[in-house]
Write a structure and sequence with these properties.
Blueprint lengths: L2 H14 L2 H8 L3 H15 L4 E3 L4 E3 L1 H29 L3 E7 L1 H18 L3 E7 L6 H4 L3 E5 L8 E8 L1 E5 L1 H7 L13 E4 L7 E6 L2 E6 L4 E3 L2 H9 L4 E5 L4 H5 L4 E3 L8 E7 L7 H15 L6 H6 L1
Parallel strand pairs: 3-4, 3-5, 8-11, 8-12
Antiparallel strand pairs: 1-2, 5-14, 6-14, 7-12, 7-13, 9-10
Helix pairs in contact: 1-2, 1-3, 1-4, 2-3, 4-10, 5-10
Length: 306
Amino acid sequence: MDKLREMEVFVAIVDRGSFTGASEKLGMSTPAVSRALNSLEARLGTQLLARTTRTVRPTDAGVGYLDACRKVLDAITEADANVAADHLNPVGTLTVSAPVLFGQRFVAPLINAFALRYPEVNVNAVYADRTTRLLEEGVDIAIRIGHLGDSTIFAVPLGTVRRRTYAAPAYIAAHGEPSHPRDLMNHHCVSFTGVSSPFEWVFNENGSRLPVRLQPRMIVDLSPAAVLAALDGVGITQLLSYQAAPEVLDGKLRTLLTAFEPEAVPVNLLHIERRGASGKVRAFVDFVTDSLRSNPHLQDEDATAT
């Protein structure tokens, strides 16, 4: 039994005046209470309680130890209360990172609502199409799209997206539609470095990975630039499903090679603090998780429809 539990048992015996009373207060059996006290006395090497058939009272050593136990247990109770209050009324500066377009469409509105809900929290929002390093860059929370490899980071699953291939109807009318990923070698392609290697796009054929080497017409490092290039007919591009969803719904872009799509890509909310997370971190995680999980663009089956 841990030391704090033994202290609780000792204080409860004194407060209730009996082993039975302590067992009722703590929800333990009377033999368990007795074992806890015996363990405590053995560890300290002294007798804390003088027992008779009718009374239980602290010894001289027990009186002094009782006061120390009360201070320790009161401090823990106060600390727990402060953490709970911190969760309800968080304060401080919270740094949140997300990919540019994902952040603009889905995270920024939630950050704005969070800032209004918790006026004592200042938010530093970092939108970048690169992998931010939480510890090194002082990031409290990051939205990451992709498979994770860092076991030191706590991940909250939010959903999945798909890597898809797109082109404008005008481009397809002028150049034809590829029926197999290898046909892309004969097309103009716009590579977005945030999703694919500039010179190799990956597909799936009969459950096996299918890489296709390209000589792209254009390489960009921002998803809106890739979307705009595809809309303007520069070429075929490969993006994550949420990045082109509005344009697909409006009929401005078409999804190509759907039978060869790679496996879904996970979307996670990351933070460092596994246990006892600070109030600002826990409050933000609680605030945004349900909203993001219910977002149709993060659901694999809905992504397929777009």
